[in-house]
């Protein structure tokens, strides 16, 4: 899940065609969580058809959300994404609250959860304390970003290739050896699943689709965006969904359902079942490389967003500081590293990703409501209009609310502490930041 805001310059023409746009969709969405997350989904939906349908539904919601973002990004083609959409369609307070929630919950939670995935796969090779390793990788990559080291295109390419190779290798193993192996015992074909459990499964799957709202931020640099953006989103979302469905079919073909559910490193365990320790080592190494790339992208993106919000006067001015030598947003980098490390030290992997989902999806519901408001503005004429309006945004808005509410209801105590962090942003804004913003 690479959260990578692309700075669009109106003076610079870099036309993005269909192939490049589709590659961006796939590259940004596929992260490291697909190599861990199936275990979380199987807890809620313990049947093969149920698991596969969860991934399909999550893929459809990802597509609908991307189409909503596509119209909003064509209306406001500048860096900031959801922050800009909320600020422009609802209010500056909503925009600030998204940035506040990003820091305290959503974005820092993604860093923390991704670092835990990294540590789990490092533990395949060495007996290590996973939380210590997770915190160490956050601090190391944050220090690199503090010094101004930027992720080069070669590293980015290597990371993307590693994810594709890991998925292709697992699928190749199944095609080459899977049919000759007896089907694992104890694999129920069908099992009744409640609506609540199905939604919780979809919520867990949505974490693996994370980052989709970043893919539409380059609308201002896309050639023929009315045609290119929706095509790229449809093809990209379909490709990612097909990859995820195929991967989960592979996991379930190689391992008993209960083994998938209890696994902390399902990709490595599936490879171990098929090709022994060498196969598991290779897959684990590729997942580690993928996790490093994802982490570096997320750690880089967060401070740039917070800096942009501070520049707008919607965050404390002292956070909009650039290091005099390295020219990096040093204070936001340090704050993000410290808080993400606290999240790792105090939360389990499940706590981390569930907090990300219900926080983000509440704001996605607000973002979609903002689109309906925007459509009523006189003279509104975006470059791209969402397909299937008003049905597609309405379905997405309803789904976003359902996902958030059911996740919160599943663990009200933990959810209330996470939501309290977000709500505390309102008094901070109105007492300290609103007067300052008025004079900005």
Write up this protein:
- The protein has 440 residues and is mainly α.
- It has one domain: Amino acid/polyamine transporter I (Up-down Bundle).
- The chain contains 16 helices and no strands.
- Helix 5 packs across helix 6 and helix 6 runs parallel beside helix 11.
- The longest helix has 46 residues.
- It starts with 17 loop residues before the first helix and ends with a helix.
Low-pLDDT sequence parts: 1-12, 180-187
CATH class: Mainly Alpha
Rg over alpha carbons: 21 Å
CATH-defined topology: Amino acid/polyamine transporter I
For the terminal residues, how far apart are their CA atoms? 34 Å
Shape by Cα distribution: globular
* Major sheet summary line: none
CATH superfamily: Amino acid/polyamine transporter I
Number of domains: 1
Give the DSSP E fraction (strand runs of 2 or more residues). Answer: under 5%
Helix content: over 70%
- CATH architecture designation: Up-down Bundle
* Helix-strand category: mainly alpha
Topology, number of strands = 0
Mean pLDDT: 84
* Helix-strand pattern: HHHHHHHHHHHHHHHH
């Amino acid at each position: 899940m690479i959260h990578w805001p692309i700075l669009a310059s109106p003076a610079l023409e870099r036309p993005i065609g269909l192939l490049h746009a589709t590659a961006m969709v796939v590259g940004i969405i596929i992260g490291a969580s697909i190599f861990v997350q199936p275990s979380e989904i199987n807890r809620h939906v313990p049947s093969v058809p149920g698991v596969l349908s969860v991934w399909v539904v999550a893929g459809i919601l990802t597509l609908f959300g991307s189409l909503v973002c596509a119209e909003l990004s064509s209306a406001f083609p500048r860096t900031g994404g959801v922050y800009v959409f909320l600020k422009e369609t609802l209010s500056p307070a909503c925009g600030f609250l998204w940035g506040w929630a990003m820091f305290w919950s959503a974005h820092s939670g993604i860093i923390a959860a991704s670092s835990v995935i990294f540590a789990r796969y490092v533990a395949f090779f060495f007996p290590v304390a996973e939380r210590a390793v997770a915190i160490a990788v956050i601090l190391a990559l944050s220090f690199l970003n503090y010094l101004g080291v930027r992720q080069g295109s070669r590293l980015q390419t290597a990371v993307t290739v590693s994810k594709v190779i890991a998925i292709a290798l697992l699928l190749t193993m199944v095609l080459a050896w899977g049919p000759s192996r007896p089907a694992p015992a104890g694999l129920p074909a069908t099992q009744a699943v409640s609506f609540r459990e199905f939604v919780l499964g979809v919520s867990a799957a949505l974490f693996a689709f994370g980052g989709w709202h970043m893919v539409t931020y380059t609308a201002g640099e896309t050639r023929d965006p009315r045609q290119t953006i929706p095509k790229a989103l449809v093809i990209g979302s379909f490709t990612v969904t097909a990859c995820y469905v195929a991967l989960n079919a592979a996991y379930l073909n190689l391992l008993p359902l209960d083994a998938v559910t209890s696994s902390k490193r399902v990709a490595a365990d599936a490879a171990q079942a098929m090709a022994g320790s060498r196969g598991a080592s290779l897959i684990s190494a590729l997942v580690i490389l993928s996790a490093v790339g994802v982490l570096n992208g997320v750690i880089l993106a967060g401070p740039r967003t917070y800096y942009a919000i501070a520049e707008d006067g919607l965050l404390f001015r002292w956070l909009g500081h650039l290091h005099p030598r390295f020219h990096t947003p040093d204070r936001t980098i340090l704050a993000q590293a410290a808080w993400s490390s606290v999240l790792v030290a105090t939360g389990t992997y499940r706590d981390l990703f569930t907090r990300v989902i219900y926080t983000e999806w509440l704001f996605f519901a607000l973002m979609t409501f903002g689109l309906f408001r925007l459509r009523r503005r006189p003279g509104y004429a975006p470059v791209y209009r969402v397909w299937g309006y008003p049905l597609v945004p309405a379905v997405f808005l309803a789904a976003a609310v359902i996902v958030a509410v059911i996740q919160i209801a599943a663990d009200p105590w933990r959810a209330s502490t996470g939501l309290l962090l977000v709500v505390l942003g309102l008094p901070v804004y109105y007492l300290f930041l609103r007067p300052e913003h008025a004079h900005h």
